[in-house]
Amino acid sequence: MAGKKTRAFPTAMDKKRGRSDATSSAGCSRSIRRRWNSPPPLSTPSPSSRFSDLPSDVLMRLAASFDVPTLWAASMACQSWREALRPLREAMVLLRKGKEYKHGRGRGIARPNPSRALEYFLKGTARGSALAMVDAGLMYWEMGRKEEAKSLYRKSAELGYPVGQCNLGVCYLEAEQPKLEEAVKLFYRAAEAGYAPAQYNLALCLHKGRGVKCDMKNAGKWYLRAAEGGNVRAMYNTSLCYSTGEGLRRNIQQARIWMKHAADGGHRKAQYEHALNLYASGDMMEVFVYLELATRAGVTYAAHIRDNVRQLLPQSSLDNAISRVENWQPSQFHLAT
């Protein structure tokens, strides 16, 4: 047998390896074909081209409630946006001029001129500004033309402007036939957008059960949010919630803090109650200041205590307190962070 060439038969492992190699070779071939035959990748559109694809009427609706900085920022996005938003930029100029006429402040304006103010607000409205719609609506409301006011509030609300939504909700509450549920829906939309007066109105509805089931826990939550947003009446109610433990967990320190905020913001009942809180501290001049403010604001029952405190003050302290009251201005708050 020596020297006889033998033929080696493939083993099972050899057969398996052979199939694997063949499969790998075929797969590689197919992969190469796919690589060469695949279409080129689609090019990603630039941000400016995506912006310019947005229809101008849709853009106008989206931007109708923008404030000045946001509107100018949007106008800088691309050339097509700049052109499409031109009417809203013009509306902002008209709106500012209308406010100057309304308040009698501005270049060449000696005194308030409501008719000229309304004229400018309506020009801004015609250019699609939800802000101008609200200002024109306020003018109509003050003139007693309430249906025209509501019509403008409704247009502004449909454009998503929280002030228009809140004002329309108030109209529904005060109507001869109130639409309470509709009012609550509008307050909720504006409250979710962060508008403090709407948050306060929503809290009132939840507190009183108007248009919605009475819910003190949620009422307390919205009172607090509105207070943090600078609403003075909400500050007073937040203080009461903390004081009684209804709607918010009882916290006397927080109650006193919010009562002082409300007093400094000009809430007359809060001024009276804050003075009573201060009485125990012995700072009679501070007590007198808040009692005098409350009395001048119409809280008649504060006068008797004020007169008693007056007798405890030396003349120099009394003069100082009166001077503070004469020069007092309500604080402007925006406490939310």
TrEMBL record:
Name of one Pfam family that matches: Sel1
Domain of life per record: Eukaryota
UniProt-listed SMART domains: SEL1
Organism field: Canna indica
UniProt protein name: F-box protein
Renumbered residue ranges of the record's region Disordered: 1-51
InterPro entries with a match to the protein in the record: F-box-like_dom_sf, F-box_motif, Sel1-like, TPR-like_helical_dom_sf
